[in-house]
Amino acid sequence: HEETGYGAQKTKDGDRIVYRKPLNQQFDNNQVGKVADPTLKTFLTSHLASFGNDPKVAFSDANRPRLTANKAQIRHVRVVASESFNPDSYLQVKLDGKLIRLHPFGNNHHVEIVRDKKTGKCRGLFVNTWQAAQRIRKEKLPLIQKDHGPDLEFVMALHINDMVTATKGGVTNTYRLQKLDPSGKRIVLRKHTAATLEDSSQEYMSTISKLMKDGALTSLRLNVLGHRLHDKANR
Q: Residue 101 pairs with which residues in a beta bridge?
């Protein structure tokens, strides 16, 4: 259970996302490894080890740690949720112009691929679940937005598990859309015949612009019989 919103924390490598979490009897070695403060992480690692790495004992009320004898017991810590910060993935709560809290929008719902009419280059506009819900419930707009202004031409929209064809190394295959990655402006495809997610040879990960330019990315629509709707005989 995450008791508060997320926050952006500055580091030498840029902003990262942290949130406050209770230090309870489920706080194992894996969780300790995510503690944001390096001094506190080292202290908790040592404390947990002194109780045989058993969090049920180490973080019980009887053994709740203190940094020093005169300090209060540690009941909450900040842990790292992500080592990078993508502003488009969070609702930003501000007070007097200052960012005080972040709330994740949720999973990515779809990506709308558009083409710049002047340059011919394509890019993806990623839409998360919260934004999609806002369109339907509050703004009373279509779920898929096809009008992005006079300079952009709508090409297609893709959701997780949609089928596409794409060319890689001169070979065209049929893929399933496995993942949307707004921070990297890319998508992850996997061959529709792949039996597992571990085989990297079945994967095709690339940016939208490169997939459209070099991979000839095409949405694949099927009828109830499994035939391509692109084929005249099956429309």
A: 93
For residue 16 the two structure tokens come to 């990262």
DSSP helix/strand/coil, 138: helix
Residue 69, burial from CB neighbour count under 10 angstroms (0-12, 13-18, 19+) = exposed
Name residue 205's beta-bridge partners: 188
> Order of strands across the sheet with 152-159?
122-128, 108-116, 152-159
Distance of alpha carbon 25 from alpha carbon 58, whole angstroms: 8
Q: Are 85 and 7 in contact (CB under 8 A)?
A: no
123 strand-pairing partners = 114
Q: How far apart are CA 113 and CA 40, in angstroms?
A: 45
pLDDT, tens digit, for every residue of 121-180? 999 999 988 888 888 888 899 999 999 999 999 999 999 999 999 999 999 999 999 999
Q: Which helix (H) or strand (E) holds 132?
A: helix 129-133
Q: What is the reported pTM?
A: 0.58
Which tokens hold the place of 38? 């390096």
Distance CA 7, CA 1 (A): 16
d(Cα 167, Cα 174) in Å, to the nearest integer? 9
Q: Which helix (H) or strand (E) holds 114?
A: strand 108-116
DSSP for residue 36: S
Coil vs helix vs strand at 41 = helix
DSSP-derived 3-state class of residue 13:
coil
